[in-house]
Amino acid sequence: MRKQWLLLLALIAVSSQSMAVGIDQTINDFLTPIANAVDGFFMTEVPIPFVGRAPFIVIWLVVAATFFTLYFKFINFRSFGVGIKLIRGKYDTTGAVGEVTHFQALSTAVSGTVGLGNIAGVATAVSIGGPGATFWMILAGLLGMSSKFVECTLGVKYRDVNADGTVAGGPMKYLSKGFAEKGFAGFGKVLAVMFAILCVGAALGGGNMFQANQSFSQLQNITGGADGMLAGKGWLFGLALAVITGLTILGGIKSIAKVTSKLVPIMGLVYVVTGLIVILMNGDQLANAFGQIINGAFNPSAAMGGVVGVMIVGFQRAAFSNEAGIGSAAIAHSAVKTDRPITEGLVSLYEPFIDTVVVCTITALVIVITGSLGTSEGLQGIPLTSNAFASAVSWFPYVLTVAAVLFAFSTMISWSYYGVRAWTYLFGENKTQENIFKVIFLVFIVIGSSLNLSAVIGFSFSMTLAMAFPNIIGLYFLAPVVKNELKLFMQDIKSGEIVFSK
Fold first, then answer.
1. Is the pLDDT of residue 499 over 70?
2. Nearest to 206 by CA among 99, 321, 128, 72
3. How far apart are CA 482 and CA 67, in angstroms?
4. R_g of the chain computed on alpha carbons
5. Residue 500 counted as domain residue
6. Which residues, in sequence order, are bridge partners of residue 55?
7. How far is CA 275 from the centre of its chain?
8. How many domains does one find in the chain?
9. Is 296 a domain residue?
10. Which of 67, 129, 379, 501 could be a cystine partner for 133, CB 3.0 to 4.6 Å?
11. How close are the terminal C-alpha atoms of the chain, in Å?
12. What backbone phi and psi angles, to 5 degrees, belong to 371?
């Protein structure tokens, strides 16, 4: 089976190289109207009384995150300790159904969110909205913890456990089954199908082509750029990445979880330590950097139309980075071994915190503290972040490149699973359909690495954020179910009725 996959990938590489001329324009022409159509609805700016205008989907996400934070009485802060105990396995129950541990589920979901958005996306936000965008990214990350808590609890609550022990869960399940419980089966089915279609598009775009394209761009930049040894070799990089990805995703969620549970801590540590080194090397500028962030967040004359403009940029990038409210992570978390859905919701609180409050903040601080915004005119995305690292130590961009490739790989293997679950929901939950999507996914890795896909960014951003529309309708509707689960769990902890495995 593995030999057949490798042969298929080789054929993909050869064909992509021969078709490279003109195919990028074809893909751009195909994706642009789709991205524009999705943008036309979800990114349409709507008026906010007394403050200005903002994209509908950003308001949709922020209002929901704020509502769930209040509805669950600041669960994002008061349950941190319980979450740590769950990750360590303290409340695991013997014989619970599922495929992975709490830590593995968290690692898989974090690997899907901690990606190039933390490197390229944050740099773009800071370059467009100024340092003040960092403040709003952090706030969005803290509020987003509550949205993540609700969706991941529901992902486990309404999952399907197959006869062979495999699990199928996520928004497709809780939208269809949860609404059916309340007598709205037809509406729930429509929302579930809508989510699944958007999820497939997001998996192939933001979870695949964007990751492959941007990681190769960074690799090419440090090896001589357009005149370097890798110029025109995107297909080769894509083939190598597709082979490694293919070998990982063949084993399903268990194989993915084993890789991410080891890779995520390593890649996170490498990036965070490197970022902290740069910050410490410029320690005398730290107070000034925080001053720029606070002043930029509330300065009426700030870039992008004042406070509202900077706020929108920060919230947008945070949403794209940590995916809180998007619903994607609920697919990975639903595979956890537990008989109490609320436990995975509490574990998932850490995901936006790690992704946005820690990793995104370090990226933004490195850019601001090194003064790269003023010395890197015209640069955005990874080149801006790379320039900031290089300003401290000339060889740090090589460390950044390793991190970028690892981020891209981990994001792709997680999103391949999200895409599989959405694809099989639409076309049938069986091995044949799973393998069909995996082949498509691997083809898109090579395509994304080989071509200059300017429309991929717009397509990826639009499809990913659009997933929040059907998902959050479900979260509002089913929030009382989560509240009851939380109440019962906390009562059992206090009464000592939970049987500890450790």
1. no
2. 321
3. 14
4. 22
5. no
6. 45
7. 20
8. 1
9. yes
10. 129
11. 40
12. 75, 20
pLDDT grade, residue 500 (50/70/90)? very low
3-state secondary structure 145-173: HHHHHHHHHHHHHCCEECCCCCEECCHHH
Structural domain for 79, as ranges: 2-43+53-495
With the C-alpha atoms ordered 303, 305, 309, 311, is the resulting torsion angle positive or negative?
positive
- The DSSP secondary-structure symbol of 358 reads I
Residue 455 lies in a domain: yes
* 8 A C-beta contact, residue 118 and residue 360: yes
Report the CATH number that the domain containing residue 86 is assigned in CATH: 1.20.1740.10
**How far apart (Å, rounded) are the C-alpha atoms in residues 140 and 122?**
13
Cα 175 versus chain centre, distance: 21
Q: Are 87 and 497 a contacting pair, CB within 8 Å?
A: no
Q: What angle do CA 140, 113, 459 make, to 5 degrees?
A: 90
CB 154 within 8 A of CB 342: no
Amino acid residing at 141: G
* Residue 502 lies inside a defined structural domain of this protein: no
Assigned token pair, 58: 């950003």
- The two tokens of residue 65 are 């995150």
List all residues 6 or more positions away from 146 whose beta carbon is below 8 Å from its beta carbon: 65, 68, 69, 72, 75, 76
Q: What is the pLDDT of residue 340?
A: 81
Question: SS3 sequence, 278-318?
Answer: HHHHCHHHHHHHHHHHHHHHHCCCCCCCHHHHHHHHHHHHH
Mean pLDDT of 217-226: 70
Indicate the pLDDT class of residue 478, thresholds 50, 70 and 90: very high
Predicted structure pTM score: 0.80
For residue 61, CA distances in Å to 10, 194, 270, 276 come to 42, 17, 31, 30
